[in-house]
Amino acid sequence: MEGKLIIFSAPSGAGKTTIVKWLLEKFNDKIAFSISASTREPRDGEVNGKDYYFITKEEFLHRIAKKEFVEFEEVYSGTFYGTLRAEIERIWMEGKAVIFDIDVIGGLHLKKKFGENALAIFVQPPSLDVLVERLRGRGTDTEEKLKERIEKAGKELAYAEKFDVILKNDDLDKACQEASELLLDFLK
Ligand SMILES: Nc1nc2c(ncn2[C@@H]2O[C@H](COP(=O)(O)OP(=O)(O)O)[C@@H](O)[C@H]2O)c(=O)[nH]1
Ligand SMILES: Nc1ncnc2c1ncn2[C@@H]1O[C@H](COP(=O)(O)OP(=O)(O)O)[C@@H](O)[C@H]1O
Q: Which domains does the chain have, with CATH numbers?
């Protein structure tokens, strides 16, 4: 059985996690979040099995060998992130569409794999400067981690055109409203 997928991708700091969480509250009868596996440390307030499945690198590599991932990537040097096939199937079995908060390359991989069943949305910040401000404001990363995210963000902004839709995230309320219209239209 194959259901639908709604993919939110963007450089770190663009606002995709915020928008995805908003949609999950509003449409919890229609969509569920694909919890990725990650080898990064949990941030304050993050919960294992809710935000991510936080696992060791050893376990991650073991799961790659067992072909448990639909896609995975070493998103930041030494830190792996991946989408588990079982996670997608679990959500489809509940009769819901799967919603993703995933990096740009991972998002494009999923789109290629699932074609018409997937809607790929690129969340676009007003500018790179604003994105840097948001990342700093979030206060979750060390200077070194920030630098890595900002460097990657510069490159990722160039991929926007490859997505089905570009969603501007200038005013957050407006972006959430637009996201919910896109979602309802796609799930019709
Ligand atoms: N390819 C891939 N990327 C993922 C996955 N899960 C999360 N990511 C992305 O990895 C990047 C880093 O995520 P995170 O450490 O939570 O930091 P943030 O983007 O700064 O909030 C983000 O772009 C996520 O969207 C996944 O399963 N696969
Ligand atoms: N439209 C917006 N205006 C101002 N701040 C925003 C907006 N969208 C998100 N933010 C803030 O920017 C930071 C990064 O957002 P987040 O959702 O974590 O991004 P991402 O998941 O893409 O890395 C967070 O602190 C969030 O509250």
A: 5-187 (3.40.50.300)
